[in-house]
Each structure stands twice: as structure tokens, then as C-alpha cells.
Amino acid sequence: MASPKWSPSDAMTRRPTNPDDLFVAARGGDRASLARLLSYVERGGDEARAVARIAALHVGSAYVVGITGAPGAGKSTLTSALIGSLRRQGVRVAVLAIDPSSPFTGGAILGDRVRMQSHATDAGVFIRSMATRGHLGGLSLATSEAVRLLDAVGSPCTLVETVGVGQVEVEIARNADTIVVVVNPGWGDSVQANKAGLLEIADVFVINKADRPGVDQTQRDLEQMLELSEIATDAWRPKIVRTVGTTGEGAEGLWQAISAHREHATRDGSLAKRREQRLRNELRAIIERRLEHRAREICTGERWDAIQNEMLARSRDPWSCADEMLAGIL
Amino acid sequence: MASPKWSPSDAMTRRPTNPDDLFVAARGGDRASLARLLSYVERGGDEARAVARIAALHVGSAYVVGITGAPGAGKSTLTSALIGSLRRQGVRVAVLAIDPSSPFTGGAILGDRVRMQSHATDAGVFIRSMATRGHLGGLSLATSEAVRLLDAVGSPCTLVETVGVGQVEVEIARNADTIVVVVNPGWGDSVQANKAGLLEIADVFVINKADRPGVDQTQRDLEQMLELSEIATDAWRPKIVRTVGTTGEGAEGLWQAISAHREHATRDGSLAKRREQRLRNELRAIIERRLEHRAREICTGERWDAIQNEMLARSRDPWSCADEMLAGIL
């Protein structure tokens, strides 16, 4: 049975190091054990595989909200406000802050964590920054794994916040059941988000910093974009909400919009479909990454050098060189 | 011995269909045989592999000029002007017009060919549009193959013109010994090109339509960009030339700039290095494409469905599913 709250952080206590024991402890609410499991996931390797195996068997139906948007749009402040909303409803919440641009935790994410630290002593809140540290599938697959782990240890709701607007961020946001895209008054931001395809994946738009000029125009622009995007009659029509993250204004409305999407997606079956498609895509991505990895392993060593030299000497063509290198595995 | 000119197109003559005989005929100057070999390359498959094998053994040191830039910048008109320059020097020239956005030849490229048709009856000119028609490696690898084939049949100079500005176009342009990037007066174009990374790969910039307002500003912008890009003292510094493609003005200057780059790159060894690196990259790309292809083959069928269903039923994790699917090949 998963614990309804997290133990305080306590680095002095001795803890197990094997994934099975850590998982039992994390499910019992031990914060440090969960942190260690997430480190395993970040690093990839055998322990990560073991964690993946255990998590898959214990996964429940935790709800996952993705929060994305351009840097400086106020995602962390909003995430913090959402944590507040959830805690007032008595819901336990886990937060993953993901920065694809940073190979190690630090910088912006550390700053973000500071902004969330009003929740740091709350036993119902678990906050974790994630960076890629060797996970074969990169940050997107590592995030899927981390989301599944948090679900498996009994956390009912996970907020995944990404930093930046790029293809990787879009991929990571797609791990969520409800995708929140944060923009600011002024169309520049939205244009930047649009480039990466963020606007297309939004279930809820937040115009944050809504106390600034231009908010009405931005709302009209988003509405116009939605009108042009030919949403089917029965399908979910992305909601637009306004917030002022710094004061918490609008946070309840944001949570209501997220909940409305969740209810709609549960009712019409699109949530189940999305989750299924996500898992299928994940499997396909893992297979691609493993083959790429194998290709990198193949393209090295003496035989590789020798074959390349024959090719460079024009005594054979690259296709037959590739055949020879791949002979053992294809 | 390769023929110094191409036979007139003559669809009525019976020709061989096997790659070896076609190659001998193409090397003897038979235009239709060369066209058929290029069709094989486009289509991929066994004949393409045979063509690759033959071409690799006969490759010489044809010079390859890539011409790229935003749609409407005037690339075809410039290409036509370059053909004129080369022909006046008595140099035989082959042109590949590549359109990654079109699965079949037609549309814009047909229009472009019309613009080049003043050279259509010239026995020293061979013009061919290329699109991808099933080649495993996509248009970029098919272009490498076509460039090598033109070299192998004895054509001393190939112009590769791409349509559009995207990642694929950048990849294709990288097949060239000298990369010409065409912009127009007005910075918008250059910004668009910059997004895709075209400006970074240019050896020669052409400001085409240089009779239009804004040409001085565009030149200053490009110069400023070059100043900021920290080019090593001995390295080639991209030249900027102005042309008016429609009148042919500046075409000789463009050819001089291309020749200057060629001489510099030959002298300092960077041409040889670039060609070697290109071939290495090509081999790596072929290996990646073949593994991806294999992954697509694997991810299908009854076993694939069964494994996915186990995963969707949460009875196993995606990593172990991937292991099972890849068991035979990794």
C-alpha cells in the first residue's frame, strides 16, 4: 500500500541500494529512496532497467499534467500555484522539472526550485529536477520512465514542467495526460511556441502575467488560431485561462480547466487512447534508440577503420561497406 | 574513356537495361543510358546497389557546386547563368535539381527546367531533376549516389541545385565541394536561410536580384555576420558576390568566387578533408538508415502485436519488450 505522504528528507539514515528494496521503501513514503530510484532512471544502465521492470508492474492511473512554454513565461511560478491548489484539495503531488538544455541539474532549474520552496517542507509534495545523465533514450524516454515510477510508488498526480521551447520539449510534454502551454501577453511568445509546434499540442492555454498590457489581443489571437484549426464537434476544444502567477490569481481557474479536460478525455475515451498511443510510441522510440546505439558501437574499432579506408581508397562503395559492417546483425 | 559530350536524347533507340551495359553506354556519352541509371538510383533497390558499386570504382575528381537558398531567390536562373559561364570555357556540365518537398518530379522543378532550357540542345549540358522514389536513404543519400555516378561517367563538373530551405536541403548542400547560398536584397531572406543553418555552410554568398533596393544593407549584414563568426586566419573566408540572374550580370564574378574557393580548398587540403569526411558521414548515414529500416520491419506482424498487448496490459515494461523484439538482431 502506497503511503499517503512523504517522509522528511533525511540523508543520515542508511538505506538499501537495490531497486526492489528501494521501491518498497519509496512506496512506503520514503522520499530519499524515491530520489535514489529517480537517479537510477536518469543514469540509465542496469539499475534503470530494473526500475522500469518494477514500475511497469505497479503502475496505477496517476494523472500527469505537462506544463510547457517559452523561458520566462512563468511556468515555475504557475507550477507552484498549482501545487497550492492541489494541496488545498488534499491531493498529494509530485513535480518533475526537466531541462533538456542542461546536462546536469543546476542553473535555471535550481532557481525554479527556489521559487517552489514554499512547498519544500510539505509532506504531500515531492519535487525533483531531472537532467539526462547517460540514459540511452535521452531525456524524453527518461521522463516517461520517471513518470511511470512516480505513479507506481503511489503518487496520484505528477506535474511535468519543461524549460524552453524545442522539439525535445514537445516530445516531453507529450508524456502528459493534459498539456498546459503557458504564453504571455504579446504575440511574440506565442509565435516562438508555435514554431516548435507547442500550440498544436495544447489542451489548456494559460496567458500568464495577465496583469500586463496586450492580454486581450493575445486571447483573441489564440481564439482565432483555434477557430482556424478545425476541431471536431465532439472533440475537446482547448480552454484559454488567464493567470497572474506571482499573486496566484487564476490558479484555481487553471486547475478547473485541467480537470475539465481530464473529465472530457476520460468520458470520450481519448485519455485511454492517448495513454495507449504514448506507450506504443515509447516502445518504438526505445527500439530506434537501441538500434542507433548499436550503430554507434558498430562504427568503431579496427574493422571499421579498415572498411572505411577501402572506401576512401575508392575500391568499394559505401553501401557494400555498410553491408559488411551490418552482416552480423541484419 | 568518357565521352566529351552527350548524345542527343533519343527515346526510339533500344538500349540495354542492366547497369553494367548502361554504364558503358553512359560513359560513352549516351544521355538516355545515364538518365536510366539515375532513375535506378532514385528508386533504390538492387539496381541502385549495382550502380553504386560500379560508380565507386570509376569515380574521378569531378567538381561539385551546390546552389541553395530560399524559394524564389533565383537559384535556377543563376544555375543557368553558371552553365553559360562554364560552357564558354568549354567545360561540360551536369545539373541535378533536387526538390525534397516533392515526391515526384514536377511543379516548381519543371518550371525551373524551363528556365534552363536555353541549354537543352547543348551537347555539353546534362540536366536532371531528382525526387525520392523509394531510395532507402532518402534524397540526401540518393543525391550523393547521383553525384558519384555523374563523376564516374566522366562529367567534370556537377551543379546541385536544391529547392527550399530546410534541414534536408542543408544535408544535400553538404554533398558539394563549394556551397553557394543565394539570398536577395532585404534581410528577411537571410534570416530564413539562417534558421536552417544555411548561412553557416556557405563558401560563397550570392546577393541575387542585386538591382533591387537594399543590396548594400544586405551586403553589410552578411559582412557583419562573417566578422562575428571567428574564421581562422588561414581558413577560407566566404566571398560575397552580387548578381542579376535575369541579365546574367555577375555570373562570371560568381564563377571566379567559386574557382577561388576551389583553389584555396585544394591548396590547404580542406577539399580532400571535406570529401573524406563526406564519405565517412555517408557510410554512417547508410548504416543508420538500414537499421531504421530493419526496425520498421521488426515492428510489425503478430509477434509485435502480441508484445505490445502485453505492454498495454501493464504486464511488462517497454524496455523488456524492446529486448524481445530486438533479440534476433542485437
Description:
Two copies of one chain form a homodimer. Chain A is α/β, with parallel strands linked by helices and 330 residues long. The first copy, chain A, has a domain at 60-268: P-loop containing nucleotide triphosphate hydrolases (Rossmann fold), CATH 3.40.50. The first copy, chain A, has 14 helices and seven strands. Chain A has helices spanning 19-27, 31-43, 45-58, 75-88, 108-115, 138-152, 167-173, 187-195, 198-201, 215-228, 251-267, 270-298, 301-312, 318-326, and strands at residues 63-69, 93-98, 125-130, 157-162, 178-183, 204-207, 239-242. Chain A has a seven-stranded parallel sheet, sandwiched between helices. In chain A, helix 1 (19-27) packs across helix 2, helix 2 runs antiparallel to helix 6 and helix 13 packs antiparallel against helix 14. Chain A starts with 18 loop residues before the first helix and ends with a helix. Residues 103-112 of chain A have low confidence and may be disordered. At the A-B interface, helix 3, helix 12, helix 13 and helix 14 of A face helix 3, helix 12, helix 13 and helix 14 of B.
